[in-house]
Amino acid sequence: MVFGCDYNPEQWGSDVWRDDVRLMRDAGIGLVALNIFGWSNIQPREGEFDFADLDEIIDLLHANNIRVNLGTGTASAPPWLSTAHPEILPMAEDGTTRYPGGRQAWCPSSPVFREYALHLVEAVASRYGAHPAVALWHVSNELGCHNALCYDDDSAVAFRTWLRHRYDTIDALNEAWGTSFWSQRYGAWDEILPPRAALSLRNPAQRLDFQRFSSDELLDYYRSECAVIRRHSAAPVTTNFMVTAHIRNLDYWTWVDDVDLVANDHYLDHRLPNPTAELSFAADLTRGLAKGEPWLLMESSAGAVNWQPHNLPKQPGEMTRNSVSHIARGADGVCFFQWRASPQGAEKFHSALIPHAGTDSEVWRETVALGRLMTDLAEVAGTRVESHVAILFSWEAWWAADGEARPSQAVNYLQQVHAVYSALRELGVTVDVVSPSASLDGYRLAVVPSLHLVSDDDATRLTSWVEAGGHAVVTFNSGIVDDCDRVRLGGYPGAFRDMLGVRVEEFVPVLPGDVVHLDSGATAGLWTERLTLTTADAISRYTDGPVPGLPAVTRNMFGAGEARYIATALDETALREQFRVALVEANVAIRALGGSGAVEVVRRASADRSYVFVINNSSEEVTIPVVGHDLVTKVDISQFLRVPAGAARIVRETAA
Ligand code: GAL
User: Fold this and answer.
1) Which homologous superfamily does the CATH classification assign to the domain defined by 599-655?
2) Fold of the 35-261 domain
3) What is the structure's pLDDT at 171?
4) Is 299 touching ligand 1 by the criterion CB < 6 Å?
5) How far is the CA of 250 from the centre of ligand 1 (A)?
6) Atom of ligand 1 nearest to the CA of 141
7) Please, which pLDDT band fits residue 656 given cuts at 50, 70 and 90?
8) By the 8 A CB rule, do 438 and 446 touch?
């Protein structure tokens, strides 16, 4: 079980370093990320390297048995490089340059940037590749956090190369992009540009491919750093993903085979209605990326961040609860950004394990206690989370669904995914979040929220699985376009029409704020459809709104399975009720472990041991039936575990 942090010793005089390492030992810090933004320090000028400080820090950590998660240092180019080569700077879609002064000011397709960056990686990897302290390599940092979509000429050249690989002929590209529309037919590859800002709506298929290209381009960049590292080091290599609510530019399903360990950065987002539900979702999705294997929380915060409009500190116990929630959902370690709060720079109001106030602080005391707990949780490492329910999640569908021109700008992919996830979480059901291409073997219920884009193969896989006896719940705006963003004709939702036994002639959005009523007593909003039943039964119908009398929720027996369709955005209670029924029919136990929403209860198990995690985010004490030994309080539990408001508990279960 890893307990770690980002450490930026370059921001401090060397007199602080020894203190830092002593305190790290006090807190049980076992892994330290270094050199993440180190470039201008270790290469102060072209052709000149200075590793003295980094050598000293790495040796100091090693002497204290603290392992290093070594950054390649390429995340932010130094001023000398962007001054000598301004062509590396990224360009926004309106053609304006993004200048240095912040971070990540480089174009992912810039050959010049890549040459300099790989030269740095060569220097770092050859120097430290065999150092016994280096336990993990950290390529760059949050690739694509700011620069994923770059529209400059280097990107245009690389985009064309990518398109040639994908389509082979210009005719195939014209066909895929539907360029007969608005006189967009291309005669030569050189005519194609990134989808820069235009006077009107842009070609959606071009934009979708640009998203794919941009994700692939950074993956290719990641691979180029990896290749250099692997020539010098046998240590595992990874980079920190951003599975979070506010960043969506990388399709991580296509990245996971290239990382030796899935690592994610997660920060609570107080702009969302339910930040801890989003944390759970992100952690479950990260476990999906790790294909169920343990993963690492590479960054999280001890308290407030600095980049939301209102940056709330954590309440006492909240850092521990959030950490335990990630572990419950499969993390075999939690790390923090960062060790010591900066007095200067853009992140001076970002929290850290040692706040500005110093070690005489609640945050530090909680850090030390969490470090102890992490040691006590060593035995949990390697166990796996159990789930019978899968949510199908897709970055491609996200890109396509939230494009420029669509039936309703008020409908947002991630919000719809979060809505179904929250309904299941409220019902105390642990879910896996998987790719639409994942095998559904072993699951009892597949949930398909607003999967606007789905490939033929993925649609067939789901449909065959249901036909063979699986249960599915599909929500509106699913199965509409193919992987070229081409509408599937003959009535929506084209890909799932037969499986769902419905046919939709028109989408009828509901204006934001307007409410429609259903004969079940439910309310709904945002979206309705002119839907007719082919083989399905109506479970409920609208009593008012734009399509009174038409079905809102349906159920279809399909082969040996069952497929339910929710054609509108139901209110929370009604959505939960739909899932309650679907779960029962799919033979999935509700609240099997006693959890519900704010009270998260998750089991991790292996062949020889199992642990029940309880994270009580509520303001009431809760009682959970479990027998075993509580690793937090060190108390045996003979029947019921009492978990005070705001506390987290982890019980090693006694074998039945
Ligand atoms: C991440 C980043 C860190 C730090 C942190 C602040 O995006 O990797 O370097 O900036 O956010 O929340």
Assistant:
1) Golgi alpha-mannosidase II (2.60.40.1180)
2) TIM Barrel (3.20.20)
3) 98
4) yes
5) 17
6) 8
7) low
8) no
- Domain 389-585 sits in which CATH superfamily? Class I glutamine amidotransferase (GATase) domain (3.40.50.880)
Instruction: Please tell me the distance from the alpha carbon of residue 386 to that of residue 292, in angstroms, as a whole number.
Output: 9
Residue minimizing CA distance to atom 2 of ligand 1: 142
What's residue 312's pLDDT? 97
CA of 6 to the centre of ligand 1 (A): 10
pLDDT at 39 over 80: yes
Percent of the chain predicted with pLDDT > 70: 100
Q: Is the CB of 579 under 6 A from ligand 1?
A: no
- Residue 243 C-alpha to ligand 1 middle, in angstroms? 13
Ligand 1 mutation target, pool 37, 146, 265, 353, most atoms within 8 A of CB? 265
Nearest to 70 by CA among 48, 43, 38, 102: 38
* Strand partners for 537: 555
The reply to whether omega before 313 is within 30° of 0 (cis) is no
Q: What is the DSSP letter of 565?
A: E
The per-residue pLDDT for range 517-545, each reduced to its tens digit, is 999 999 999 999 999 999 999 999 999 99
Residues 624 and 594 sit within 8 Å (Cβ to Cβ): yes
pLDDT of residue 592 exceeding 70: yes
pTM, two decimals, is 0.98
The 10s digit of each residue's pLDDT in 365-412 is 999 999 999 999 999 999 999 899 999 999 999 999 999 999 999 999
Q: What is the C-alpha to C-alpha distance for residues 539 and 552, in angstroms, rounded to an integer?
A: 8
Nearest residue (by CA) to ligand 1, atom 7, is 142
